[in-house]
Amino acid sequence: MTKRLMLLEENQITFHSEDGLSYDGVRDYSRQIAEMIGLGSDSEFPQAGVRTVLDIGCGFGSFGAHLLSLKLMAVCIAAYEVTGSQVQLALERGLPAIIGNFISRRLPYPSLSFDMVHCAQCGIVWDKKDGMFLIEVDRLLKPGGYFVLTSPASRLHGNSPSAKKGSLLTPIEEFTKKICWSLLAQQDETFIWQKTVEADCYASRKQGTIALCKEGQDAQSYYQPLAPCISGTTSKHWIPIQNRSSGSLLSPAELEVHGVNPEDFYEDLQISRSALRNYWSLLTPLIFSDHPKRPGDEDPLPPYNMIRNVMDMNAHYGGLNTAFLEAKKSVWVMNVVPIRAHNTLPLILNQGFAGVLHDWCEPFPTYPRTYDLLHANGLLSHLTSEGCSIMNLLLEMDRILRPEGWVVLCDKLGPIEKVRALATQIRWEARVIDLQNGSDQRLLICQKPFVRK
Hints:
- With 453 residues, the chain is an alpha/beta fold.
- It folds into two domains: 4-243, Vaccinia Virus protein VP39 (Rossmann fold, 3-Layer(aba) Sandwich), CATH 3.40.50.150; 252-447, Vaccinia Virus protein VP39 (Rossmann fold).
- It has 15 helices and 18 strands.
- α1 (22-36) packs across α2 (62-69) and α10 (262-287) crosses α11.
- The chain starts with a strand and ends in a 6-residue tail after the last strand.
- Its EC number is 2.1.1.-.
């Protein structure tokens, strides 16, 4: 279904199915999942509360690409591979993806993050380690969320004694009952479970089942060891996916749940809208130099639009992502929340955006040369106060950035001037722009060269 060939056509890499049926196969598969959860078609996923999907072991990203065409946010996550990387191929296709593996540690997401977790022959033996992998999926799923598993039925039964005795329940089905999941449907090799919407379900189970996490044990999720306990049941974010507002802009009541002052949220959004207009006016003559664009024209589609993805390295409330959507720019944004900053990732994910927690004193989980534009507002001051090496940060940004990619940094004059000097050492073209708003804030715009001189 996801097997594709990479072909070079007119100086572009394109993806074609081997037999011409792959695209239709993905559409049929998506429609099958929708029908299994009681919908008429996959265009009705939002009506079931599904806006964000974590696609584990995504292959070449065909399922995620189809979901993006339905205006859903699908994030591919797969382990590091020396060759034939699923994450790298997904990013080259213009799809959100990060390197991740929860064989021993939690993924860098807070509890109750996704509406659906999907695994199509992703290589994980789900009933191993006493069900720890399923407990991690339960942690990631929002109340009422779906776990979609497509795998040969023989692999689900494995070599368990119950399967040999002809039991109707596989080990996975037995375990999911312990964590308050219900098996919605099974069709061919696809199984769909739904997580309970009742937090009380966990407390009412029989003795000897999986314990609830202790208070504070659930707070940290940045690559912590897998924990054999149920998370999120006492969280104020325990809101069934079917009960949320349908739009990306959250209501004041929803913002209050996240501990965010509505005035601060809308002020951040207004600043992001203005900033994006300024960035685009500064970068447009350069980005579209090979494809002249008159004021008021729509941005050309790839390959002439040189920016397909953006990493917001200090995403705050996700305002830049919203501004891109409102401006109808053909890009997606990876919203990164530094782990020592206020954790706004639940708020970002609740808006249907891609995001992740990260420690910028360490490398980001992606392959080299995978992002077109890196943006950060206030990150330099934040990292300086944390004692992180700014030079190491720039070298990591250089690794992530594609040749001829752009860096836009907004910060105080001191950190901006320091970074400008360091940027010239790694052969970036750099210039500082005075925002002329009466503050000491400055804008640093850099471009990574195609060839270093």
